[in-house]
Amino acid sequence: MLQLLVELGPADAVSLWTAPMPGRIECVASAGEAATSRRHRLSARALLEGSEGLVDDPATHVRGVVVPRWDVSYAALIARSRPEMSARLAVYLSEATTALSRLFESERLFERNEEVERVLVSASERRLTRLGCDLHDGPLQDIVALADELRLARAQVSSLLEDDLAARVRGRFDDLEARLVALDQGLRDISQAIRSTSAVERPVEDALRVEVDALNRAGLIRAQLTVNGDVSGLTASQRIVLFRVVQEALSNARKHSGATQVRVRLRSSARYVSVTVKDDGCGFDVAAARHSGRLGLTGVIERVRLLGGDIEIESSAGGGTRVRATLPRWSRATDPTEPVYAVTA
Ligand SMILES: Nc1ncnc2c1ncn2[C@@H]1O[C@H](COP(=O)(O)OP(=O)(O)OP(=O)(O)O)[C@@H](O)[C@H]1O
Ligand SMILES: [Mg+2]
Asked: Regarding the domain delimited by 2-113, which CATH topology (the fold level of the hierarchy) does it fall under?
């Protein structure tokens, strides 16, 4: 835009300044010759640190205006016109200020959106990690202690009993120990699953493959993963949510569906990324399950909505279940870290 003011408008130098912290001002974009000169800097400082809304120096033909972001002064737009054009410069600057204000406001909204997304998703991941650790350090350690006591009790009781009775009691202790081992393994699996940070640390495709492979290894269900499109540019929050959706859908297929096959499909386009998990199991009444007080599906629905996405759960008795989560892909059209200077010689 600054370049246009120089090429097509009445300015021969334009610069845009902000005050990232008190006492410091910074030129964020410029066009034209000597657009970042001391005079421009002083004018910008007067606007950003003083109370004036306008700088107008007829001697040097430098004019500066404040660019507000909502109702706060956010930047200073300074321009030097060719002498014969100084009257027209005011009109051009006023138009440019309006456009820049909108730009800064939407930029800020964008940043806030990113911040909110990060905070919300990482807070729920942190809660899960904490829960996984609590489970590991609390109930799992109790189970280990309980198993020791059970072994001791078994030895003590056996020594007090006649042979045939001792054999029956030993069988009973074997059952109890086996149940304790299964309980220990079950809780360890849960603890591991909820503490899993693999969705953050590795590409989503790899994280999903680990889940699918684990299901295949368990042997009851044949699981397949397909990936279409480029899924490399997803945010950490998006990767976590996609991973959690698949994790829950696979866990449900394993626990409830009696399915023999599950297909996981990750698809990405320029505007959306979606993941579909489809099983050929018994199906269920989705509306009733939503009010069952169980947390799995409710949790993933909330996570998907948090990122502005959509989730569909389709299921029918005997017809299997399909869970599909779609997230909007949004990324900046421009790179905010890239300087936008356009100084013409
Ligand atoms: N793929 C599926 N096939 C058959 N029934 C399912 C399937 N997914 C969910 N259900 C039914 O919906 C109910 C709710 O699922 P949800 O994941 O919310 O809870 P859950 O799996 O029972 O417990 P958790 O809170 O540990 O996830 C399940 O109890 C089950 O009856
Ligand atoms: Mg579940």
From this structure: Beta-Lactamase (3.30.450)
Substitution candidate for ligand 1 out of 248, 294, 300, 314 with most atoms within 8 A of CB: 294
pLDDT at 176: 95
Ion ligand 2: residues, CB within 5 A, are 252, 296
- Mean pLDDT computed over 118-142: 81
CB atoms within 10 A of CB 62: 21
Q: Is the dihedral of CA 9, 335, 310, 132 positive or negative?
A: negative
Domain ranges of the chain: 2-113, 138-195, 197-332
Residue type present at position 218: A
**197-332: CATH homologous superfamily?**
Histidine kinase-like ATPase, C-terminal domain (3.30.565.10)
Using most ligand atoms within 8 A of CB, pick from 244, 297, 304, 323 the residue to mutate for ligand 1.
Answer: 297
Task: Summarize pLDDT for 154-183 with one digit per residue, the tens.
Answer: 999 988 888 888 888 999 999 999 999 999
Which ligand is closest to the CA of 284, given by its number? 1
